[in-house]
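Much of our argument rests on the idea that a fold can be written as discrete symbols. The amino acid sequence and the backbone structure tokens for this protein are reproduced below:

___
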Amino acid sequence: MKAVFMTDRGKIRQHNEDNGGIYTNRSGQRLAIVVDGMGGHRAGDVASEMALLNLKEFWEQSDRIATAEQAEEWLKKHIEKINQILFNHSKSHTECEGMGTTIVAAISTDKFSTIANIGDSRCYILNESGFKQLTEDHSLVNELLRSGQISKEDAEHHPRKNVLLRALGTEESVEMDIRTIIFEEGDILLLCSDGLSNKVSQAEMEDVLKSERSLEDKATELIKLANDYGGEDNITLVIVEFSDGSELVNQG
């Protein structure tokens, strides 16, 4: 397994409210995380960092995950814990009122990958069947699209594109989507915040991921593309590749 994490403030924002990383548990299994914080007075930074650091700590203290059921249960239990931590913090710190964060997280073993998401940070897979999005955005625009009220073209430029229907930490309880896929030699997962997916098309992502570049160069190229197209938002991504080698790069 090889993996790389990269984040960039973008060209407009003063602060980076995204966060993420790649972490190993006691058995050396990988957990990839991307979070995109929201809330006034820099509370978005607080939400995304708290979510990341707590999930990282829980994972690093965890033992080997043997089955997809265990992976799904682990993500559900610990993301719910983090939701409570963030919710309680926002209630006891007025400057953090209403803060929250998206999350997409993937546990990758040598047999499967289990992905959980809340909000509009995404996970894609590149495998022998092609390149596709695995997660569903929990956003107003995606709901309008799914119900047939707007077209895919309308969704691209919708004025309320940033309105989320679900986020981590904004309510006392939260629903998440969790799914497990077979993860095989040569397959690649891409986790990213909307700073990438709003700017770079799926065809462009696929071209970069299929290229002969190193994982680090692929990550750098994707962030460059998002910035070339305006870079109005923070841009964060993790790429995980199932291969013989073992390499992990965390880069801010």
Remarks:
- The chain has a mean pLDDT of 93.
- The domain at 2-251 is CATH 3.60.40.10 (Phosphatase 2c; domain 1).
